[in-house]
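INFO batch 0412 | record 1 of 1 | parsing
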Amino acid sequence: MPAAQSPRSKKLAAALSDPRGVFNTPDDVLREAKLSREAKLLILHQWEHDARGLAVAEEEGMTGGEESLLSRVRRAIAALGGPTPISSAYTKHGG
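INFO prediction complete | emitting C-alpha cells
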C-alpha cells in the first residue's frame, strides 16, 4: 500500500499538474513560503508550458483577451534566477 502524501506533497503534485488550479498568479507561486526554489521553478516551468499553448490558441482565435500570461510566468521565473528560453516561438508542432 503506498504511503500517504502530506498536504504539502499533494499541493505540489496538484500545482505541477495544473498550476492555475492551485495558484491565481505566477507571483503567488513566488510568495509561497513552503515551497523550495526548485519546486517553484518546476511549477513555473509547467505554467510556462501551459501558457505557451494558450498563446497559440489565442493566436488562432480560439480564446481571447487576457494580458499575456506567458510574460507574467517568465517574469516570475526570472525573479527566481531561473533560466528563460532564448526563443519565445511556440507552434502547434511543439517547441
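INFO post-check: The longest helix spans residues 37-59.
INFO record closed
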